[in-house]
Amino acid sequence: MLDIALIRRDPDRVRQALIRRGHGASPVGELLRLDEEYRSALTAVERAKAEKNRLSASIAQASDRAAAAMELRPKIAELSQTIAALEEQARALSPIDERSPLRAILSSLPNMLDESVPGGSDESANVEMRRWGEPRRFDFTPKPHWELGESLGILDFGRAAKLSGSRFSVLTGAGARLARALATYFLDRAAARGYVEVAPPLLVSRETMWSTGQLSKFSDAMFRDTEADLFMIPTSEVPLTALRSNEILDFAELPRKYVAATPCFRKEAGAAGKDTRGLMRQHQFDKVELVWLSAPEASFDALETLTQQAESLLAELELPYRVVELCGGDTGFNAAKTYDIEVWIPSSESYREISSCSNCTDFQARRAQIRFRRDAGSKPELVHTLNGSGLAVGRTLIALMENNQRPDGSIAIPQALQPYAGFTQLTS
Predict the structure, then answer these.
(1) Each residue of 137-162: pLDDT tens digit?
(2) How confident is the model at residue 385 (pLDDT cuts 50, 70, 90)?
(3) Is 366 a catalytic residue?
(4) Are 389 and 259 in contact (CB under 8 A)?
């Protein structure tokens, strides 16, 4: 959530940030109008309370208290009713009240983009930063991963559809082992870099979802238990970021780094008719997520480190990739700046996203109230939160299978992964 003090102080800057993201009509004017009503209601409450206190004091100071009380107590009672009505009006407008129209608008505003984010309205304006490795040139006709997986007996989409419908898969035998090996490999690499592994709940509360910015724009994409009002996590970014909500950390704790390997659940599966086959877009998928809680002055350096750590996993697995900086129109709701890491997928003859690394500055921390103190006597400050996939297991499996396939349909396992998988190749 944006700081309402920033919007009051510099509304034009916020309007320009919305324009950079490709937003049309700006709600800033309406937000400021409601904020003025809210602050006017608070002022009216204070004035009424002051008048009530003055009248009460007049009774106490009067030479004839009985007469003064008879005259003034009806006015005091009337003021008490007025104060209650004004307080209810202020509560209804308060940015912390869930029903408040002011909070609704404030919650709908995306994060401020960092000044370094390139302009542009969609992915065509994203800027390639660097590449690693060269896409393989095959001397035979390569197969897509769904054909490879089914012929090897490690992927079963037909039985998955029988169990759950479309956009689900069953990994069996060596396929299941390979997916588990990838997750373990990613977790071990994170542990070596100082991340604390967490096994979080897969169902979280509405407040947890809201506090990490997931409900403002994406509620329709979530699987939900309506009776308990719990949401299945779309990414473990949600519980990892909210883990320290409503806490004040010591400065010495920062940066705090968390990692989790979890299933993720999303109804949204991309554009109609796109990626309908295979593992690319599924309602349930496994992902290893990296989350940082950082001091504000260090967060953009932390973003560079986080991105380099995520991309190094692909280099270790010998998979060609590129890093792309997202333009304003393609940057996500919570993020101030984002790098996408895209791995080469032979079946689509293109680079496809496998990790999105973002600095959310204090946007999520303001909602979740994650703060820190620089020393014992200092005022609490909001941390900056960062997140990135390290990595998406299913998409890594796609890239591994398609890039390492042989003419006979077998698949070579990268050397770095062999100790985790327990085999050097996949064969039928």
Answers:
(1) 999 999 999 999 999 999 999 999 99
(2) very high
(3) no
(4) no
Residue in 51, 87, 353, 381 annotated catalytic:
353
Catalytic residue among 100, 169, 211, 356: 356
Supply the CATH number for residue 409's domain.
3.30.930.10
Q: Are residues 181 and 222 in the same domain?
A: yes
- Which residues, in sequence order, are CB contacts of 247 under 8 Å at separation 6+? 369, 370, 371
268 noted as active-site residue: no
Mean pLDDT of 66-88: 87
Inside any domain, residue 115 = no
Is 370 within a domain?
yes
pLDDT at 277: 85
Asked if residue 203 and residue 71 are part of one domain, the reply reads no
The whole domain housing 36 covers: 4-108
pLDDT of residue 61: 86
Q: How many CB atoms lie within 10 A of CB 379?
A: 7
- Whole-prediction pTM: 0.91
> 266, 322, 367, 371: which one is catalytic?
266
Note whether 90 and 232 are same-domain residues.
Answer: no
Is pLDDT at 270 greater than 80 in this prediction?
no
276 pLDDT more than 90: no
Burial code (b: 16+ CB inside 10 Å, e: under 16) for 229-268 equals ebbbbbbbbbbbbbbbbeeebeeeebbbbbbbbbebbbee
> Is residue 55 domain-resident?
yes
Residue 40 lies in a domain: yes
Specify whether 356 is catalytic: yes
Are 132 and 74 in the same domain?
no
- In angstroms, rounded to a whole number, what is the distance separating the alpha carbons of residues 344 and 253? 37
